[in-house]
Design a protein that fits this description.
By secondary structure, the protein is an all-alpha fold. About 50% of the residues lie in helices and about 0% in strands. It has 3 helices and no strands.
Amino acid sequence: MADSSKDQPPPYTQGGNPQAAYPPGGYPQGGYPQQAYPVQAYPAQMVVAQSPPPPSNALIAWLSCLFCWPISIVAVMKANESSLSAGRGDIERARSKGEGAKKWAIASMVTGTVFGILAVIIVCIVWFVVIRKYVDPYNPYSD
């Protein structure tokens, strides 16, 4: 019979001995060994129910600009500070700034209404007392 060692290729010799990488009994039966990972303890998650942010009263502040704009600028600034505080999560400050914006807006509306009524009264007085005397030709009291 022929020599069987001549039919096989020569052993691989470059790069080390490949047979040393396997255990002497062959492949492990259970597959790869299990690696132990460290157990991480996570803190308990706390669920916080957030109430809706307090009203900033921005709409009433901007509408008050129609009545008396110098006072309503303060109301608009307070409403803006209320919105920014609510965005930062400072609910108490947002509530107080929103209430301040509402107070300034109401003050602006009251002031504008009072000035408007006074303006109408002054115009009526000027019309009926001063101008009507010179405009009405049938007025017996005109010179």
